[in-house]
From TrEMBL:
Upper lineage: Eukaryota, Metazoa, Ecdysozoa, Arthropoda, Hexapoda
NADP is among the record's keywords: yes
InterPro entries in UniProt: Fungal_SecMetab_SDRs, NAD(P)-bd_dom_sf, SDR_fam
Species, as recorded: Pieris macdunnoughi
Gene3D superfamilies hit by this protein: NAD(P)-binding Rossmann-like Domain (3.40.50.720)
Keyword line: NADP, Oxidoreductase
Family under the similarity heading: Belongs to the short-chain dehydrogenases/reductases (SDR) family.
Record-given protein name: C-factor
GO molecular function, one term: carbonyl reductase (NADPH) activity
Amino acid sequence: MKSVLVTGANRGLGYGMVKFLLKNDKVENVFATCRNVSEELKSFSHEHKKLHILTLDVTNYETLDDVAVQIKKVVGNRGLNVLINNAGVSTRFTKLNLVKADQLLENLTVNTIAPILLTKALVPLLRQAAVTNSAEPIGAQKAAVINMSSILGSIAQNDQGGFYPYRCSKAALNAATKSMSIDLKKDEILVASIHPGWVKTDMGGKNAPLDVDTSVSGIFKTIDNLSEKDTGKFFQYDGSELPW
């Protein structure tokens, strides 16, 4: 992975991913997007020349093409190796009698529509990376889209009900992953969904059993091991495959 883009990089899992990638000497460029840049992220940009912070609200669709332009200025004809669609919101604890239309719309907008449209905008850069690294096997070394999903998006494992906004948005994202994997197969761009586990973040809460570092190291180990046979599949952070 010479160049990686992580959305929602200001805190939580995304921030942990950026820190992890900056420690990897093989990664040449880390693009971190967020709506508001934290002081911590700013300090990293002073310490690491390979970190490029891009201000982005993923729901402001008109700016997505501009993000692609900014990335191209840095990577040139080498393209973007990995896009990690991590930015997300959660309105999870919602039973049927309490669910509201605005909750459903917000979750679908951020968790499903935004990743699809950002991927669309960045396909030319991903395709360029696949061409540039044509000698590499299909995977993150060539070009890949990683959609950060959730076990709550698994229809097969839903045995509790509820969580309508979040479940529906992540199930829809998983459907998008499958379609992307088919549409981008000819370009040799791998696409997969990954569940990060229940992680101690603002979204996951204090009772979550996993810390960010454990989840992130597992995620990148899994990404590194993905190959052509894994495109269009759904994985847990530890590499085990999950049912749709």
